[in-house]
Design a protein that fits this description.
single chain, Serine Threonine Protein Phosphatase 5, Tetratricopeptide repeat, 2 domains, alpha+beta, GTP-binding, Defensin A-like
């Protein structure tokens, strides 16, 4: 049976209260020492609160003194032991009070912000008050070490903090405000994801003053005949090898007429294109499930300003990267982009990897394995070593975060 919808603040009886969430549901599984409580609609509840589902799950574990199990890929959130729904709903109310509601106006429309000294504050979009979170709570440590998914809303324009690495950046916007909608708890976000992506990006584009944008931005390409010829010459050589690098084997049939080469040329010939246009082009070419398309986009979509451009195109990679093979192709594209095309950007590897990791496009295990194994699949051995050497600060940050998590679990 589907869960009902309740007010985010369950102490508010007003049926027209605009901040709503699904009623938290629970399911007991297992027997004896293996008994556990599964929360089947944790993702829906967390989405309504605009917080990652890992946060309330970890909060429950901390408050109950129980181990938690989180499988984000399969959308399973578990608290060890048998806990009834009423108890977990009470704890959810406590989580909302401590980590969602504004301390001043009690409005749930807040962002979580990390300050430079690694304090977490709730920034209320309703009244403008910033209120501190109790940093003594175990969840505060977890939040600092585990920034949530980025949604690409672009609320903090000019804030490049979320692309900084290797440490979680100070002043970084790490979660959006609460969901105002009172839609069905079952939700159909997955079915409408394309429309939501289109609406969001078009809305952001509509807010920009085209003249001011062109005057201030430096992403417009030199369209002189000489520049175009030079770009196309480099592209012909580069793109021809993009899709062909597959375990060191080249396919002579996949050259300038292959869909991958067409995609690469199109992105190069259309600088400044939107994320929506890129995804539609990938679909038109029938490449939305092809991991090589990810490699092509990394190599041809970005410029030397890749660090600031990644947030703009992150929705494309969120939709395209669906397997470990896709992730490895993305990392291979990064290797070729910085190793062959822009070697001066090799030191920025941590800043390039961090936003992809924070958006859950790259998994920790895949990045770690890549960073510790030199490969000649995409670039020569020396270049591969340089790229991985540059990634060490990011890999160290990942390892230290893991060590701290294990210590917390042991406690």
């Amino acid at each position: 049976m589907a869960a009902g919808v309740v007010n985010i603040r369950r102490d508010v009886d007003d049926k027209f209260y605009r901040y709503r969430m699904p009623l938290l549901m629970t399911k007991i599984e297992g027997k004896g020492n293996g008994i556990k409580t599964v929360i089947p609609n944790m993702s829906d509840v967390a989405h309504a609160l605009s917080r990652p589902p890992t946060y309330p799950t970890k909060f429950f574990g901390s408050e109950l003194g129980a181990q938690t199990s989180i499988d984000e890929k399969n959308d399973r959130y578990i608290v060890n032991g048998a806990h009834d729904a009423a108890r977990l709903r009470e704890l959810l109310d406590a989580f909302i009070d401590k980590f969602v509601l504004c301390a001043a106006c009690k409005n749930p429309e807040t962002d979580l912000i990390l300050t430079k000294n690694e304090m977490i504050v709730r920034d209320c979009k309703a009244c403008g008050v910033r209120s501190n979170i109790d940093m003594r709570h175990k969840l505060a440590t977890y939040i600092i070490k585990n920034p949530p998914k980025k949604k690409g809303k672009g609320k903090k324009k000019g804030d490049g903090g979320h692309a900084e690495a290797p440490t979680p950046p100070g002043g970084d916007l790490i979660s959006g405000g609460a969901d105002r909608s009172s839609g069905s708890p079952d939700g159909d976000e997955g079915a409408e994801s394309d429309d939501e992506l289109t609406r969001r990006l078009k809305a952001e584009a509509a807010e920009l003053n085209p003249e001011a944008t062109l005057a201030k931005e430096d992403w417009s390409a030199d369209t002189s005949p000489e520049a175009v010829k030079a770009r196309m010459g480099a592209l012909s050589a580069g793109v021809a090898g993009i899709a062909l690098t597959n375990g060191g084997e080249a396919d002579s049939d996949e050259d300038v007429d292959s869909p991958y080469s067409q995609l690469g040329r199109w992105t190069q010939e259309n600088p400044g294109i939107s994320a929506v246009e890129v995804f539609k082009k990938v679909q038109d070419l029938g490449l939305e499930k092809k991991h090589k398309a990810v490699q092509v986009l990394v190599q041809t979509l970005f410029t030397e300003d890749i660090v600031t451009e990644i947030p703009k195109y992150m929705p494309v990679f969120v939709k395209l990267v669906s397997s470990e093979k896709h992730q490895k192709a993305l990392l291979g594209g990064v290797e070729r982009f910085v190793g062959l095309t822009h070697p001066d950007l090799i030191p920025t590897i941590p800043k390039i990897l961090m936003p992809f990791y924070q958006a859950d496009v790259l998994d920790e295990e895949v990045v770690t394995q890549w960073g510790t194994h030199v490969s000649k699949k995409y670039v020569d051995k020396d270049t591969s070593k340089k790229v991985r050497k540059a990634s060490e600060p990011f890999l160290k940050w990942l390892a230290e975060a893991d060590d701290d998590d294990e210590e917390d679990d042991d406690e």
